[in-house]
Amino acid sequence: MNDMLWNCLIVAGPILIATLAIGVVISVLQVATQLQEATLSYVPKILLATGLLITLGPWMTARITDFARGLYLMIPSIAQ
């Protein structure tokens, strides 16, 4: 369970941190320009998350696949 939580954090962390950072930057720009449009922050976040998923997708898939493979290989040792 501990490994699963760490893997989730490691795999999802870069996208969550990047979207949080871009959200803060856009919020600061909205406050500075007094442009209070709620939908203005969604498009950059979606574009950034999509770009990161395309870029980091193979690494994320490999990490999750290795974790799942490790779980399947651990089944015989647990059954004994």
Give a summary of the structure in a few sentences.
This protein has 80 residues and is an all-alpha fold. The protein has helices at 2-33, 42-79. The longest helix is centred in the C-terminal third of the chain and has 38 residues, at 42-79.
Topology record:
Layout: H1 2-33, H2 42-79
Structural descriptors:
80 residues; mainly alpha; 2 helices
Rounded mean pLDDT score: 92
Helix content: over 70%
Low-confidence stretches: none
Separation, N- and C-terminal Cα atoms? 20 Å
Q: Tell the overall outline.
A: elongated
Largest pleated sheet: none
**How many helices in DSSP terms?**
2
Multimeric organization: single chain
Description of the structure:
This protein has 80 residues and is an all-alpha fold. It has one domain (2-79). Helices cover 88% and strands 0% of the residues. It has two helices and no strands. It has helices at 2-33, 42-79. Helix 1 runs antiparallel to helix 2 (42-79). The longest helix has 38 residues, at 42-79. The radius of gyration is 18 Å and the shape is elongated. The mean pLDDT is 92.
